[in-house]
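During data preparation, we tokenized the protein backbone, and the record follows.
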Amino acid sequence: MPTTVTTANPKLKETCTEFRLKVMIYSPEAGYKFDVTIQRKCFPTKWLLIFNLYKKSGNEFVQIVGVEFEAEKKEEEKALEEMSNTGVNMLQSRAFRKKVFPRVKAGDEPTKIHDELSKAIQQKPA
């Protein structure tokens, strides 16, 4: 097997490290729970939020819906980056529970879910 040695390129100012971070698990009502995961992909750099909805079936929770939200605007990218550093704030948590969860549970169209996710991640405490 050949060996490859790579040296750092001093011309590159920033390197991108891909990661995935589960930042919240929440139970919005009896028999349901969801989790929110922040993910950064590289080359090109993309910020994603993954919203997974689970429903209780017997003694365990089974995933019923998965939503992948890709940040399209600078404000969305900044909000996801901040969430990856500081976690979910109270206003974001409330928006996920009261605005995003009902839309995902009801099976609303992707555009409406995308809009609610965008609003939710951009919630900031006063």
